[in-house]
Structures are given as C-alpha cells and as structure tokens.
C-alpha cells in the first residue's frame, strides 16, 4: 500500500469547517483513499472513501486532486464530538490474501475548540 | 442499524488464565477481522474469516491464540495462558464482503488487562 503523509495535529473552531489534508504522492491507479477516525477509548470509525471522484456522505466530503496525489477530508461544521485522530489510508481493492489488512499511520489529531 | 458489537468491553484477569472475547458483526456482513491495538501503537492484524472459507490465521502471535466463527456470524477469540504482553485493546471489524473496496467497520473493542 502507498504511504500517506498527514500533519500531526490541527485545531478547528467549533462550527467551522475542518479541512484535513493527506498527501499520497505514490498512489497507484487501483488504490482507493479511505478515511477513518478514532475517538479516545473507541474503535476506529469509517468515514468515507473514494477512487477518483469527489465523494460526500452524511459525515464528510472527500476531495481528491485530479492527479490523485493528495486529498482533503472536509467536516463541514465541526463539533466538539469530532475531536479525534483522523487516519488517511491508501490501499488497493481486495487482491488476495493479506490485502485486506488495514494499517494505520500516526494520523492527524484534530482538536475542535469551543 | 446496529454496528459491530464486542463483549466484554473490559476484562481484567490474572496471568495464566484463559480469556474469551466475543464479536457480533453487522448483520449480513460475511467478512470478519480481528486486530489488536496496544497503547500508542497501530493496528496489528490477527485473523480473518470470509464465509465458509478457511480463515487466514497468519497474524496470530502464538499458538495460545485461537478464534472461531460459528454459523458464519458470531466470532470468539480465545487466549490461553495469558501473559502480560497480551494486554491490549482487541478490535473486531466486519465488512459486507472482502472483495472490492468494501470498508471495514469496527467495534469499540475489548480492553484486556493482564495482571
């Protein structure tokens, strides 16, 4: 799986949009971008994923650059409950034994400030 | 709908005892995964089940660890003769299928502490 680079920490004011960047300059054509988050003492929570096109769901939007070398997760109106560590993962769709194993990097610790 | 459910949420036991951790995946999900996460560490893959296929046990750290999945649904992870280094959060995840780009959905884990 391609390596990702994320800032170690970010702050966001409550009610404002949180824009979390991820660099994946070595991404391959068949690799998806996934975002998870982990709130203290909870399991990782799936947020969103995409291949080429921008994606939106009830939690967030995912913006992938045209060259696919970077992406941004957008939480449109951050709340205190969005304080968590956010992980950007790049991985292929299932391609045999072992390819389903998730690996998290250090992620970005997002602090939403009242 | 209901997410992945794990029990117990916390388990404290003495070194040398056996423990059983339970995972109830999302209804209809055929793929089930066990990971563990030590303090400040990333995810460590343990074992994977897909339907009636033989499980991938390649991540189990020793023969003290075993897991089964009965009826294609609930899974139990068993650790025999526990050691202090087994202390960690044990996470279960499930996905609709393993093929394609289906995301894995996690439970909140069992926090295991070995005294």
Descriptive account of the structure:
The complex is a heterodimer of chains A (114) and B (115). In chain A, strand 5 and strand 6 (61-64) form a beta hairpin. Chain A contains no helices and 9 strands. Chain A has 114 residues and is mainly beta. In chain A, the strands form 2 sheets. Chain A has a 5-stranded mixed sheet with strand order 1-9-8-3-4, with no helix packed on it. The N and C termini of chain A lie far apart (37 Å). Chain B is mostly beta strands and 115 residues long. Helix content of chain B is 0%, strand content 46%. Chain B is built from no helices and 10 strands. In chain B, strands 2, 4, 5, 8, 9 and 10 form a 6-stranded mixed sheet that branches. In chain B, strands 1-3-7-6 form a 4-stranded antiparallel sheet, with no helix packed on it. In chain B, a hairpin with a 5-residue loop joins strand 6 (65-69) and strand 7. Chain B starts with a strand and ends with a strand. The A-B interface holds A 32, 34, 41-46, 49, 51, 93-94, 97-98, 100-105 and B 4, 6, 31, 33, 35, 42-43, 45, 48, 56, 58-59, 91, 93, 95, 98-109.
Shape of chain B: globular
Number of strands of chain A: 9
Which secondary-structure class do the elements of chain B indicate?
mainly beta
- In terms of DSSP E residues, the strand content of chain B is over 45%
How many helices of chain B?
A: 0
Round the Cα radius of gyration of chain A to an integer and report it.
14 Å
C-alpha Rg of chain B (nearest Å): 13 Å
Name the helicity range of chain B: under 10%
Order of helices and strands of chain B: EEEEEEEEEE
Poorly predicted parts of chain A: none
In total, the number of strands of chain B is: 10
Mean of residue pLDDT values of chain B: 92
Q: Going across the major beta sheet of chain A, what is the strand order?
A: 1-9-8-3-4
What is the terminal-to-terminal distance of chain B?
Answer: 37 Å
Terminal Cα span of chain A: 37 Å
Question: Percentage of helical residues of chain A?
Answer: under 10%
Reported for the largest beta sheet of chain B, the result is: 6 strands, mixed
Mean pLDDT of chain A: 92
Coarse shape of chain A: globular
């Amino acid at each position: 799986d391609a390596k990702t680079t994320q800032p170690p920490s970010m702050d966001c004011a409550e009610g404002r949009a949180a824009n979390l960047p991820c660099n994946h300059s070595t991404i391959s054509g068949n690799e998806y971008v996934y975002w998870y988050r982990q709130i203290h003492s909870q399991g990782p929570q799936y947020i969103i994923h995409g291949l080429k096109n921008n994606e939106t769901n009830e939690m967030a939007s995912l913006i992938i650059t045209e060259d696919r070398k970077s992406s941004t997760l957008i939480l449109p109106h951050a709340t205190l409950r969005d304080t968590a560590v956010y992980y950007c993962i790049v991985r292929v769709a299932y391609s045999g034994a072992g390819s389903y194993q998730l690996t998290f990097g250090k992620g970005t610790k997002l602090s939403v400030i009242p | 709908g209901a997410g992945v459910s794990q029990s117990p949420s916390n388990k404290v036991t003495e070194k040398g005892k056996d423990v059983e951790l339970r995972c109830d995946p999302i209804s209809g999900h055929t793929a089930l995964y066990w990971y563990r996460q030590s303090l400040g560490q990333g995810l460590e893959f343990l074992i994977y089940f897909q339907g009636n296929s033989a499980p991938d046990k390649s991540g189990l750290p020793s023969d003290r660890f075993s897991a089964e999945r009965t009826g294609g649904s609930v899974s139990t992870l068993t650790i025999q003769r526990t050691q202090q280094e087994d202390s960690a959060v044990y996470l279960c995840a499930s996905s609709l299928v393993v093929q394609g780009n289906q995301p894995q959905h996690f439970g909140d884990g069992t926090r295991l502490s070995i005294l």
